[in-house]
Structures are given as C-alpha cells and as structure tokens.
Design a protein that fits this description.
543 residues, alpha/beta, Rossmann fold, Elongation Factor Tu (Ef-tu), domain 3, 3 domains, six-stranded mixed sheet, globular
C-alpha cells in the first residue's frame, strides 16, 4: 500500500483520511449514536443546534487523536513446558551474577532448597559476593510477592524482564534419588547432584541441566550421567584471541585498491586522508592502521562512512623531541598507545599486554606530563584490585593510602624509572627524598576501590591497574565515577587473572574493551613486545 504523504510542518498529524486507501474507499456516514463518545451514548435526545454551537465555542480546538498501536515486535513467544529446558543453578552462579536468573530466555530455572540456605549464609558483609547474595534475595522476594503457593512456579518476567519467558521453580517437596555412585551424605554439592538426578527421573522428556561455575562439580555431574554446563552468559567473547586489539595491519595491495580518488588536507599540523575501498567498512573509529611498504603509513581512523573512511596521521613519539616525561616509544604499539594517552579528546583508554610491555610506565609518564606540565588534569589517581597472588597477609595498619602502598609497588618502580631516566640520577642522594619527587608525590593519590561508590572525579587522570581482576559490575562502578574533564586508563593482562570464577572471557577488562570499541572518545591498544629486560621477555615466552 502506498505510504501517506509526509507532514508539511512540525507538529502536524497525518490524518487517516489522507491515505490513498482512504480516499479511494467509499464514504460511510456513521450514525449519530456511533459518532458520539461512549460516555454520552446514554443521552436520550441530541443537543439542540444552538446549544451545541455554544458548547463548541467554549471548548478549545484540538487536532485528531493518535491511535496507540500495541506490537510485540520480535519478542519470542512463551514455549510449552515440554519444549523448555530446566536449568538447576548452583549457588556460585547466583553469587557470581545476581541477574543470572533472568538470562536463560524462554527456559525454566530450578533452585534447590540448599542453594537458598547457602545464599542466606553469604549475604552478610560488604564484599561483592555478599552484595550479589542480597540482590538475588531481593529479586526472589519481588518475584514471589503476592504469589501464594509456589508449587507451580513463578513467571520470570513478572518484574519487567521481558526477555525472561521461563518459569522459576523452587524445591517445595523432598527430592531424593539414589545416585549411581554412593557419595558422602551431607555435603552440599552431593545434595544438589541428588536433586538434579531426581528431577531428571521425574521429567524424563525434559532436558535437565546443572549450571555451575565449579569445575569439579560439573565433572562429578558428568560422571553420574547428568548434564552439566558452565555459566556462559557472563562471557563477552568465547576466545580471547578474538578480542579487539585496536590495530589493523593493511594488506600489500592496499594502495592498489584504495589509492584512487584519495582526498588529503592538513589541519592543525595533522594530515587527513579520505580513502574509499572495500576495507573501509571493517575499520573502527580510533583504530590504528599501518602499512610498512614502499609508501609507509601510520594513521588513526577518525571517521567511517560505509566504504569510505578518514585517516589521520599520528605523532611520532619514538623521536626524542616528542618524549613524554623523558619516555619515548620503543615499538609501534607503544607509539600508538602514547597517541591515545596524550589525546585530550580520548576519555577512556585501555591497554592490554603481558608483563614488561610498559603499560604502567606509559600511563604514568602521560599522566605526569599532562598534570605537571600542561596542567590539563589536577592530579593523578591510581587504584587497583587488591587480589593477592599467594596467601593473604592479613589486615594492614594505617590510613587508606598507607594500606594501599604495599599493593602499589609497581608505582614506586615506575617512578624510579621516570626519575632516573630524566637525568636526575645521583648516587649519593635517595631518589625518594628528592625535592622533585616530593612534588610529584603531592600530585599522585593512591585510592582504594572500596570507597569509590558515590564519588565523582573532576579533571582527574585515573589509572586502574590490574583491571583484569575486576568483574564487569565493578568496572562499571569505577568508569561511571568520571566527571567532566576526567580521563580513565585501564591497564591489565587477561592472562594473569587471580579473582576466583573470572576467566579471560568474563573479565571486566575484556568487557570494557569490547563495549567501548568504536566509540569516538575511547581507544584500545594491545601491546605485543616486552621491553622490560631480555630476562623478563624470555621468561614470558619460556615459562
């Protein structure tokens, strides 16, 4: 059917009679009773013409009313019970992701009674696990409120989660089943396995699956002939090799396919190129591209529009005259990273790389330059996740900054490198008591992540070190602290995750890298080469 003509001015409404179908349809005159509002149909006689005219003069003129059309769009339909899977959740899944009960789409969820007991034991405290336990309890309370009996389950979309079309079932009766292998009675994992086996026996036509973050729990379930899966919904990517690197090497035939109709101009000391070709659609904004051939090119993508893109040349920080607090780039990726760190239009920068690639050194050098020299930021704030590699050393005395100092050994090491590398070395003088270092220390604040909630940072250079140990929820809490003029730098190595139940695919660092790619005010670089020492480089490869 042809579309109606567009409105001629702002605020007008297309009338239903202006459609071609309405014009071609025969005119049907409604009866007087049908033309009246429903509330006035009870009147016995129509109003007199004079009275109707006076009433019309008193009422303001109104345009035609818009009809509200309800549509479900592409929303999935609720499946019959025999077509829905039944997932039994382990306690660690609820403690890992408080929203997990709403992420199984059209399938059902079963919570054993023991899971609720373990959830109750974990709700006390200020840790992330305790907060997730309390949040899950609130969700469950909201679902079962005004429900009455729970033997038939609770619809999961009751709280407005339209994608959760399944049913939440609680254990309302005793479920006991003889397992194929005798296991110790009383252990929580074995009780949950017994419940899963009983459900599988009771519902032979349904697919009953145990979902757990515990590897040994899944292995025991598989040994007993039960279906078991890991919780995959928290994973941003399945393979860490597919993670966005922020760098794209250009093929050898790049200029052959993209060298026609190239537009170039200069602005602010930067040369811009507008190119057209099939590779342009694969570019991301703020991604770095390079071509090392007869016509070398090192550029950053500034704009992508279909099969055309705008590239901008970058600053060469490997040259001594462009040093950042005495630091120059030693490889291609470090040069790209310094371009992001020194760009005032880039509010969020993430740097990934193995040990010794220079992540902390580059971020600290860029922060000192823009805080003490250009005065772009008022101070540098450094924080990190306090997850120990070995056994916990216990409580630390002192103030917040004194408690964080043992975790900030990397800060001290890099400050020493920056101080000695700037030509201020003096063998007879303690570098930490140098007047210059006292000035630098006065502009660097070490903060704990535990007190970040509710804060707003204005014109700060915030460095989040060891960000691979943060969950996506913790990362969101930190990034949303940024106020006007604040730049956030996330550093980490996803191959060195110490937080339990976090993997390379579910880390908060992986989460922000994937979600921020393509945003015009963010950038990411994966550093490849280690520059710490030949011993550290060989150890990273051989060990």
């Amino acid at each position: 059917m042809p579309l109606p003509k567009l409105p001629s001015r702002m605020g007008t409404v297309v009338s239903a009679t202006e459609t071609p179908a309405a014009k071609s349809a025969p005119e049907n005159k409604p009866t007087a009773q049908a033309a009246q509002p429903a509330a006035r149909r009870t009147q016995k006689a129509p109003a007199a013409p004079a009275a109707a005219k006076r009433a019309a003069d008193k009422q303001p003129a109104t345009g035609p009313k818009l009809a509200v059309v309800s549509s479900n769009g592409n929303r999935k339909k609720r499946l019959p019970e025999n077509q829905r899977k039944l997932f039994v959740l382990d306690t660690n899944v609820l403690l890992h992701d408080s929203n997990c009960i709403f992420k199984f789409e059209e399938h059902d969820i079963f919570l054993p009674m023991l899971v609720l007991e373990e959830l109750d034991h974990q709700k006390k405290g200020m840790s992330e696990v305790a907060r997730n336990a309390r949040q899950v309890s609130r969700y469950l309370d909201g679902l079962v409120s005004e429900q009455g009996k729970l033997d038939k389950g609770v619809l999961l979309d009751k709280l407005g989660n339209v994608d959760a079309l399944g049913t939440l079932h609680f254990q309302t009766t005793a479920l006991s089943s003889d397992l194929p292998i005798s296991l110790p009675i009383g252990k929580a994992d074995n009780v949950i396995l017994s419940v899963v086996h009983a459900l599988q026996t009771r519902h032979p036509k349904r697919e009953v699956t145990l979902v757990s973050k515990d590897i040994n729990m899944r292995l025991k379930a598989l040994s007993l002939g039960l279906r078991a899966e890991d919780y995959y919904n928290d994973r941003v990517i399945d393979d860490s090799d597919l993670l966005y690197e922020g760098v794209m090497p250009l093929p050898d035939n790049f200029w052959t396919k993209h060298g026609k109709d190239v537009e170039s101009w200069q602005q602010g000391g930067v040369t811009y190129y507008r190119i057209k070709g099939p590779l342009c659609s694969q570019f991301m904004v703020n991604e770095f591209v390079y071509f090392e051939g007869e016509l070398p090119l090192y550029a950053q993508v500034k704009e992508v529009n279909g099969k055309s893109a705008v590239l901008a040349t970058i600053r060469d920080y490997s040259h001594g005259k462009n040093n950042v607090w005495g630091v120059t780039a030693r490889n291609r990726e470090q040069n790209f990273a310094l371009n992001l760190l020194m760009n005032p239009e880039c509010d969020f920068v993430s740097l990934l790389g193995q040990a010794g690639t220079g992540k902390t050194l580059l971020a600290l050098a860029a922060g000192l330059t823009q805080t003490l020299e250009t005065k772009r930021y008022t101070e540098i704030i450094i924080t990190r996740a306090t997850v120990p590699v070995g056994d916990d050393i216990g409580f630390l005395p002192g103030t917040e900054e004194e408690k964080m100092l043992p975790w900030m050994g990397a800060l001290e090491d890099n400050l020493e490198v920056l101080h000695l590398g700037s030509g201020n070395a003096d063998n007879n003088l303690d570098w930490s008591k140098n007047p210059t270092m006292e000035l630098i220390r006065s502009r660097i604040k070490v903060k704990s992540m535990n007190f970040m909630r509710g804060r707003t940072f204005l014109n700060k250079f915030l460095i989040i070190d060891e960000a691979q140990n943060l969950t996506p929820k913790q990362m969101k809490t930190l990034v949303t602290r940024a106020g006007p003029g604040t730049k956030i730098i996330c550093l980490g190595n996803i191959a060195q995750i110490d937080t339990p139940y976090l993997t390379e695919g579910s880390s908060g660092l992986t989460y922000v890298v994937d979600r921020f790619k393509g945003w015009p005010h963010s950038g990411h670089i994966t550093l490849q080469r280690g520059e710490r020492s030949r011993l550290a480089d060989y150890a990273s490869e051989a060990l």
